[in-house]
Design brief:
- The protein is built from three helices and seven strands; from the N terminus they run E-E-E-E-H-E-H-H-E-E.
- With 135 residues, the protein is an alpha+beta fold.
- The protein has a single domain (8-133), classed as 60s Ribosomal Protein L30, Chain: A.
Length: 135
Amino acid sequence: MSNPTPPRAILPEGWPEPRGYANGMVASGRVLVTGGLVGWDADGVFAEGFVAQFRQTLINVRAVVEAGGGRVEDIVRLTWYVTDMAAYRESLKAIGPVYRAVMGRHFPAMAVVGVAALVEPQALVEIEATAVIGV
């Protein structure tokens, strides 16, 4: 199912181009919203370390969106919850290539939120996604 009007980034006039995210997105179609997805595989086994969990979490986001009939390019928003903001910041150089390997060069609106804990005690990152899938 293809989206006749693909989502596009919004950049107010005079604002600098964001790096690796969009300030806002506009799209039309059916809305798919994921729950909070974490860095475990189909057997419930967590990947080891922040970057590996981040990668597996993105793979899980992509799998849910694709199972709903969408594509990575249909994702208009990602909200990341991380339990260790210092580990996130220390991993920034590694995160970029991992993100692009799983999600390509599609950068929707994103927010990263530091949290004290997640429901799954082993989870270091949890990501929610919103996708708009063409009708």
